[in-house]
Design brief:
The chain has 21 helices and 20 strands. By secondary structure, it is of the alpha+beta class. It has 4 domains: 6-117, 2-Layer Sandwich (Phosphorylase Kinase, domain 1); 122-289, Transferase(Phosphotransferase) domain 1 (Transferase(Phosphotransferase), domain 1, Orthogonal Bundle), CATH 1.10.510; 319-372, no CATH class; 519-636, Roll (Nuclear Transport Factor 2, Chain: A).
Length: 638
């Protein structure tokens, strides 16, 4: 019996493109191709290489690499092969972080290959099969990334047509990468077009079952909804054709903890009728986040100049007729010199007509102010100026539209960022704010949003970083000053700096900052009083290390308090410590004088600031504090 020497896949060790790549193993195979894991022999990097190979119609001899046909006309095969190459060339122009990038295309072995970076990770299908259904926040994070990628290709009139868990790679960094564009096609939204009938049961809408049918963004939205259904429930959705006669269970019926908005978004996306689904990705994400539109800090927009009606084209006299008329005039009425001058003007006019630009028209009108063709040249100049004005208006309008689209995109990401944060989806919220910052890096509100979310996550270092960036753009941002000041005050040792930010917010009229200062004023006073009492207790206990800690760094340097040793302090700075040495370790009263100044009273006659009378006390000591509660000056008021 003869041995079967035919197979499908290239064998391990096969070299492609003159030894540039070496096949190491098969990654997967589908209806129109086989994907290999290959090594770039010069760079040492690994890539995924997809080979055009129609299952059931292509084979190859194990001793050769060439693809052989069976049961398919060579002309039909060549047509599909050329289509594969053309579509790969279109997809090579795509550049999105959630779409696998095509970096090379070449033909070999009677077929074609596309080269892509190898994406490390596992498919969404494998992830759910191994770990079970995903939690809501994780699922929404993946769907949001995929939606952004799908929106990107839809804006370029490309349908993926095969979005399913097997075509989504989840990287170790939790990035969702959309792969396998072998079924992708260019499309005109909501128009009937001839596309091959490629579909995956459970994830393809009804319109993909027919070659001639209306297709649009809503077709991929059905597949996104189906993938979302699978990730939240762990169950493959019912096939669209089967649903014509049976009712598909809602995901919430399978898992009761699925939020209502997610359940409703999925069921709307998977409607059998295209018109009942979300019509674009923006609507899909708005439904998912249950988002109401609102306008926050819109960027300024330009007003386009009004368009003017253009005049009809003025006929230009044919060159040959002009020459005939000119020659007759010269022969009848003028001499040779006049004839030569008219010929020069005629040549200049002919050059103007040929050049067809404003500069040459202006030159003619300057040199020949009374020229025979002045009217024609002026009319031509007016026409060219109108055309230039229209082009400029069109350019401004296009630029204006581009700015408007960018502004709207920033606005959408901003709103979705806060909506996600309100729902506790902080990682997703940060992604939306970062996307907005990538478009508009000078928007203070976007950086404040990042700081706000990091503060919610209790990542205070990052929160301070983004609040500082907010203030670099807008130093008078009230809540950035307040939030940054509160974080510095409570979580760093620089209370004075924290109070500076809070006071600035209060001076800008921020009521929350004013309220904070009122509520904390008593606590600040209490801190100063406690410092004085603690100092006396430390002196009584002869704990000079603790005494040392109550003084500010500036005061330590001023008095050269570099060694908190008992004898050093006693011998060198007896005056400082002698001020309170007769206090008998008892504080009779502590009175607040001017701002950040306190008087310690111990049985000595002094004039009371508050009571406006002379009192008998032993001594009066003045303490001056900084805003952190450290003593910056100490002297006797005897």
């Amino acid at each position: 019996m003869p041995q079967d020497n035919t197979s499908k896949e290239l064998t391990t060790g096969t070299r492609l493109q003159s030894g540039k790549y070496t096949i190491e193993r098969v990654l997967g195979a589908g209806g129109f191709g086989i994907t290999y894991y290959a090594r770039h022999n010069t760079l040492g990097h690994y890539f995924a290489i997809k080979e055009f190979f129609i299952s059931g119609y292509c084979v190859r001899n194990t001793w050769r690499k060439n693809v052989m046909l069976q049961g398919i006309d060579p002309e039909v095969y060549d047509k599909y092969l050329q289509k594969f190459i053309e579509e790969a060339q279109i997809l090579a122009q795509l550049d999105h972080p959630n779409i696998v990038k095509i970096i090379d295309i070449f033909q070999e072995n009677n077929t074609a290959y596309i080269v892509m970076p190898f994406v490390d990770g596992q498919t969404l299908q494998q992830l759910v099969e191994q770990k079970g259904r995903l939690d809501y926040e994780t699922a929404v994070n993946y769907i949001a990334q995929l939606s952004d990628a799908v929106d990107y290709i839809h804006q370029r009139n490309i349908l993926h047509r095969d979005i399913k868990p097997d075509n989504v790679i989840i990287t170790p960094e939790n990035n969702a990468i959309l792969i396998d564009f072998g079924s992708a096609r260019e499309f005109i939204n909501d128009k009937t077009q001839q596309h091959t009938t490629i579909y995956t049961q459970g994830y393809a809408p009804l319109e993909q079952y027919a070659a001639n049918s209306r297709k649009g963004s809503y077709s991929d939205i059905y597949s996104l909804g189906a993938v979302f259904y699978f990730t939240l429930s762990g169950e493959k959705p019912m096939d669209a054709a089967t649903r014509m006669g049976e009712t598909m269970p809602e995901p919430k019926a399978l898992v009761s903890s699925i939020p209502d908005e997610a359940n409703q978004t999925i069921m709307k996306a998977m409607s059998l009728k295209p018109e009942d689904r979300q019509q674009n990705i923006k609507e899909f994400m708005e439904d998912l986040l249950n988002k109401k539109r609102k306008i926050v800090s819109p960027s300024p927009k330009f007003q386009a100049p009004p368009k003017k009606e253009t005049s009809s084209k003025t006929p230009i006299i044919l060159f040959t007729i002009l020459i005939s008329v000119l020659i007759i005039g010269v022969g009848s009425y003028f001499g040779v010199k006049k004839w030569q001058a008219d010929q020069q003007e005629l040549t200049a006019y002919n050059n103007v007509i040929s050049a067809d630009n404003i500069t040459d028209c202006d030159n003619y009108l300057t040199i020949y102010p009374d020229g025979k063709h002045r009217t024609d040249v002026q009319n031509l100049r007016d026409k060219l100026q109108q055309k230039k004005d229209e082009e400029e208006r069109e350019r401004i309008a296009q630029e204006q539209e581009k700015i408007a689209q960018q502004n709207q995109k920033v606005q959408d990401y901003y709103n979705m960022g806060y909506d996600a944060a309100k729902n506790g989806l902080y990682d997703l919220s940060l992604q939306y704010f970062q996307k907005a910052i990538d478009i508009d890096p000078n928007n203070a509100e976007l950086f404040f949003g990042m700081g706000y979310v990091y503060a919610k996550q209790e990542n205070l270092q990052q929160a301070m970083t983004y609040y500082n960036k907010t203030l670099q753009i807008n130093p008078n941002h009230e809540y950035a000053n307040l939030n940054l000041g509160v974080i510095i005050y409570y979580y760093t040792n620089d209370r004075q700096k924290g109070l500076e930010y809070i006071n600035k917010a209060a001076n800008l009229g921020n009521q929350d900052a004013q309220k904070w200062l009122q509520e904390n004023s008593a606590a600040l006073t209490s801190n100063y009083v406690n410092t004085i009492r603690g100092l006396l207790q430390a002196e009584e206990a002869r704990d000079f290390s603790k005494i040392y800690s109550y003084f500010s760094p500036n005061m330590r340097r001023y008095y050269n308090l570099t060694n908190p040793d008992y004898y050093t302090l006693k011998n060198r700075y007896e005056y400082i410590w002698g001020i309170t040495s007769n206090a008998q370790n008892y504080v009779q009263s502590i009175e607040k004088g001017s701002e950040d100044t306190y008087y310690l009273h111990t049985n000595y006659q002094y004039y009371s600031i508050k009571q406006q009378q002379t009192m008998s006390v032993n001594s009066v000591v003045c303490f001056v504090f900084d805003s952190t509660g450290k003593i910056v000056e100490l002297y006797d008021l005897k």
